[in-house]
Write a structure and sequence with these properties.
The protein is an alpha+beta fold. The chain folds into two domains: 105 residues, Gcn5-related N-acetyltransferase (GNAT) (Aminopeptidase), CATH 3.40.630.30; 134 residues, Aminopeptidase. It is built from nine helices and twelve strands.
């Protein structure tokens, strides 16, 4: 009775509706419209041929998105409509995507899972995924006042593309999938950037993200901690009385305490998990 159809053969709106229904009661409820889903597919390199929509009879009841970059794959989302859970559908979707990754001769499958999602975590463990790292999802309430930094560093507005030229230099490890260099390059035209240059006029720290009237969503922050501290102060002074957000910063990232110092709190934690193929 269960059928798995390639995502690229299914009506796109059916896929979006099934995704939204599957995530409607998630720990972080998620609803996404069609245009935003198209952008997400591009940003995250979702492979529509090897992603899937699950059908129970004629009903679309689950989705699984597999992303591919180079020799690495990533689970970009998996969900089952609430009324059809506990029927083995999630495991079947995962098996399908793992088999697809193997058919593409990829080396590893990565994913993130919220710590409180114990059912999914146990499923991934049973499939052979191992925990590699803990990740923090950070929010800053709009009522928090910016701290005052006695800094020698002047913060400048910069072009996001110029910032990303220093991505490899300013990062000591790969970012999580949604904030890896390729993803940020796909978003670059829509992002704002702030940077600090050292005495030799070299960009030594930057932050890029979306500032709006209600929230500043950072997409990537990198560089010398004292310079990053100056950037955070500058951004939250410039965009006063708005909230802040930064998703999936590693537990041992030296910049994490700076965000906490600026009033960011950890609202969720995730496990970064991998399966070696």
């Amino acid at each position: 009775m269960l059928k798995l159809e390639p995502m690229n053969t299914v009506d796109f709106q059916t896929f979006v509706n099934t995704f939204n229904t599957s995530y409607s009661d998630y720990f972080v409820p998620l609803q996404i419209h069609s245009d935003a889903m198209h952008n997400l597919i591009i940003r995250d390199a979702i492979d529509e041929r090897h992603s899937t929509v699950a059908y129970w009879g004629d009903n679309a009841v689950g989705v699984g998105m597999l992303a591919v970059r180079n020799q690495i794959s990533w689970i970009g989302g998996i969900g089952v409509v609430p009324d059809y859970r506990r029927r083995g559908i999630a495991r079947a979707i995962m098996d399908h995507m793992i088999d697809a990754a193997r058919s593409l001769s990829l080396s590893v499958v990565e994913l993130e899972v919220l710590m409180q999602n114990e059912g999914a975590f146990k499923l991934y463990q049973s499939l052979g995924f191992d925990v590699q790292q803990e990740l923090h999802i950070l929010n800053r309430d709009k009522t928090v006042l910016p701290i005052q930094v006695d800094s020698q560093w002047a913060v400048k507005d910069i072009d996001t593309k110029d910032a990303l030229k220093e991505f490899d230099t300013l990062h000591t490890r790969r970012n999580p999938w949604q904030r890896d260099l390729a993803a940020l390059q796909n978003l670059a035209n829509g992002l704002s950037g702030w940077g600090v240059y050292d005495q030799d006029n070299k960009l030594s720290a930057y932050a890029i993200g979306w500032p709006t009237d209600t929230v500043v969503r950072f997409m990537d922050v990198a560089g010398e901690p004292d310079m990053v501290l100056a950037i955070l102060e500058h951004v939250h002074q410039t965009y006063a009385n708005v909230s802040g957000s930064y998703v999936n910063i590693f537990d041992d990232d030296p910049l994490l305490p700076l965000f906490h110092e600026h009033g960011y709190t950890t609202v969720h934690k995730q496990y970064a998990m991998t399966l070696t193929l």
